[in-house]
Amino acid sequence: MKSFTHIVCVFLITVGSVYAQQEKGIIGSDNWLYGWTDFKPNGSDYGEPTQILAGNISENTRLTKRDVYLLLGNVFVTNNATLTIEPGTVILGDYDSKASLTIAKGSAIIAEGTETDPIVFTSNRSLKRAGDWGGIMILGDAPTNKFGNGSVISFYNNLNTASYPYINYGGENPSSNSGVLKYVRIEYAGKRLKSGGNFNGLLLACVGGKTVLDNIMVSHSAGNSFEIWGGKVHMNKMVSYRANGSDFKFNFGTQSELNNSLAVRSPYVSSSTDGNRCISVASYEKREEVDFSKVQTNVIAKNLTLLNNSDDLKGDIEKGLVKEAVYVAQNASIDMNKSVISGFNPAVIFEDKIIINQANLERIKFTDMYFNNCNGNIFVENNSNNEDLENWYGNSAFFNVYAKGQNSETFIDLKNERRPDFRLRINKIIASNEHD
Length: 436
Fold this sequence. Notes:
Strand 29 and strand 30 (421-424) form a beta hairpin. This protein has two domains: 1-30 and 246-436, no CATH class; 40-190, no CATH class. It is built from six helices and 30 strands. The chain has a 26-stranded parallel sheet that branches. The chain is mainly β. This is T9SS C-terminal target domain-containing protein. It comes from Aestuariibaculum sediminum.
């Protein structure tokens, strides 16, 4: 490992002055969460629905703010149609029919809210709970790393045969456009599947690079908040709040960028079982389904804040309620930069199939990071000896900082339920290369 350290010094020391003083975690001169997010959505009352959305939407359709819509059963946007949603529109997912909205391949959604008038997808129950309804699925024609050019999602229970053509995804167009999601909230999604597992708050399957994905909040999802399969996805200002599953899950050869985004977990809400983390990066579920001549999963993540909001971190770790924040599987790559990981056990885990050598470490990058109050930093799965990894990522050329600050000292304002501010208190950082 000493040779690795020497090499990384040669390549990175020249850019030290550029990165060392940059802000870490979510950034902005103002608190960009204010106005469009809601961290206590169960108290919101949107009234009774005035319109019903059911079956297939096969022609261009516009939803207006003056109506409240009830999403009934599995709703598909098909036939290359575009579903346009005005700012401030509310769509209620029906609990009894476990509603979901799918944008079929070739169709599009234009859901462009504003900072003061976001679009809201939520449960129709008076007392809302995670998993009340399905969620949103956008199916595009960008590539995956699977064999062939297309696949079929299998989330639906009792789907009629007429709907089979609408659940395909995948193709050869990495720059395709499935529309816009901007200033959108998705609440209480992730219904349970009869086959096991859950829907996700937002599934992006082979979504192309021209799709706009900005300022999206997924809260209280019983499944994963954001799941990305294949495609070329650019996401900015994403918020995942108290997911039961993972916050951001990348798979099947996706080429994704995730910028200036937040994941907040709670040890008594977010499941620590079944491999749920803030970020999971993998290239496949089963190795035999993947064509290794294609590009594998690569994620570029910059200015993220990954926070486990625990009042008793040591006690919660002893109870088994807190696990790692980031998981990297074999044959997947991540370049994580200027981000904060606070309050996990440990911060990062590599799948045990990953061999610790120069080639693998060069495609799993953590630079200019702020590791705070974690029970260990970077480990290989099922291996408590992380000396090689600590020597590598702890080298001063990576500009990683290690600290043991309390959340109240580390972030600007976590207790304000109306207007929380998860930006880092810059003046509290003392640059250090000391690590556990």
